[in-house]
Write a structure and sequence with these properties.
Length: 168
């Protein structure tokens, strides 16, 4: 049976692979936004699970849900920001932005719907309350706008730094 440390390392390595591919395709206009964001969602979810395993969480419990990103990614980003020298109001800004973006990133997973209020996801088509079918390549996802902001670029650098810290 794999140890908690092995799970942490495994999640970190997969987060590294997912984010690495995201970083390569993010500027590519030929790649659909939903696929780009799927990679980011998967990288962030695995980063959080690596962080939680490294902090003592039971890996078996973490495998039961996709809903860990919104609650935990801001803490991961905050630790990375502190390590690279963010302090005071700048640190609070970075963490506030991470909280906002982490909630939107978590919603990109099809299993996370906020009580049926947000069926939009970057992997599967969904039907809205009016019976209209939506397809991810045609949808405008909130994280796209947030990532284009200067704070979004800082967020991505801090996610990369957090993954690099956890990869063995």
């Amino acid at each position: 049976m794999a140890t908690r440390d092995e799970w942490a390392a495994g999640y970190a390595r997969q987060a590294d692979a997912d984010l690495g591919l995201f970083e390569r395709v993010w500027p590519d206009a030929a790649v659909t936004t939903c696929h780009k964001l799927l990679l980011l969602q998967m990288a962030c979810e695995k980063l959080v699970k690596a962080y939680l395993c490294d902090s003592g969480s039971d890996p078996a419990v973490l495998q039961t849900s996709h809903a860990y990103t919104a609650a935990n990614l801001p803490d991961v980003v905050q630790e990375a920001a502190v390590r690279v020298g963010y302090r005071g109001s700048r640190l609070r800004q970075v963490v506030g932005f991470a909280q906002r973006l982490a909630g939107e990133i978590e919603l990109l997973a099809p299993a996370v719907k906020r009580g049926g209020q947000r069926p939009d996801n970057c992997e599967y088509p969904w039907e809205d309350a009016g019976g209209v079918l939506h397809v991810p390549p045609d949808w405008s996802f909130a994280p796209t706008r947030l990532l284009a902001q200067p704070a979004g670029r800082v967020f991505l650098r801090l996610v990369r730094a957090a993954i690099d810290e956890l990869v063995p």
